[in-house]
Amino acid sequence: MDYNTDRTPLLMPEYGRNIQQLVEHCKTLETKEERNEMALAIIEFMGQRNPHLRDEENYKHKLWDHLFILADHHLDVDSPYPVLSAEDLITKPRKMDYPSLDNAYKFYGKSILQLIEKAIALQEGDEKEALTHVIANNMKKSYNVYNKEHVQDDVIFRHLKELSDNQLDLTSLESLERSKIYYAANRNNNNRNTNNNRNPNQNSNNNRRNNFQNPKNKRK
């Protein structure tokens, strides 16, 4: 009677004992042609036993890598992909560099710095001014999340001025709330002016339509 302790260790238990034995038998074949033929059959069998791998990208490449792992990297066959070695499995990945922020206000994050660079690159005008106010509002949110306390707007304006090398200056404003109301009012006025300029006869057409629909306005 065979016990599992007396058998070859399962290098990948998810494939089971049968595939492990097929790989071991493939290693004992004398000619490379026979090993290649059997290796292709084993790859097909592995794909059938694990159909979920077919949904992954380059699943064939993964099956060949698993075949060499099951063979303990001692299988002389012609692989359509680079042969996976034991060293490839133990090699540690390259350490990723942690992004660093060269300022005292790291709690604002890198996205705020990118927005500041974007605003600086814009020409003077409404778009630049509106983006500057958006940046200030987001800075205030980030500050409150990090410090867990209410922050005065003048502190945000000072930080924005420092981070932009004095190129974005909102220190003349009293508060962000007033600036948002100001921009909302200006945007509404601009939209109304645009609509009137686009169709100057709209008001007169509306008046004539109202007179036609209301019988009291008809001439006697």
Could you outline the blueprint of secondary structure elements for this entry?
Elements: H1 16-28, H2 32-49, H3 59-70, H4 86-90, H5 110-121, H6 126-147, H7 153-163, H8 176-198, H9 202-213
Helix pairs in contact: 1-2, 2-3, 5-6, 6-7, 6-8
State the helix count: 9
Radius of gyration: 36 Å
Percent of residues in beta strands? Answer: under 5%
Mean pLDDT: 78
Helix fraction? 55-70%
- Helix/strand-derived class? mainly alpha
* Largest sheet geometry: none
| Weakly predicted, low-confidence segments | none
DSSP E strands, number: 0
Order of helices and strands: HHHHHHHHH
The backbone outline, from C-alpha atoms, is rod-shaped
End-to-end span in angstroms?
116 Å
Question: Summarize this, please?
Answer:
This protein is mainly alpha-helical and 220 residues long.
Structure keywords:
220 residues; mainly alpha; 58% helix
Description:
It is a single chain. By secondary structure, the chain is mainly alpha-helical. About 60% of the residues lie in helices and about 0% in strands. It contains nine helices and no strands. It has helices at about 15-30, 30-50, 60-70, 85-90, 110-120, 125-145, 155-165, 175-200, 200-215. Helix 1 (about 15-30) runs antiparallel to helix 2 and helix 2 (about 30-50) crosses helix 3 (about 60-70). The longest helix has 23 residues, at about 175-200. It starts with 15 loop residues before the first helix and ends in a 7-residue tail after the last helix. The model has no long low-confidence stretch (mean pLDDT about 80).
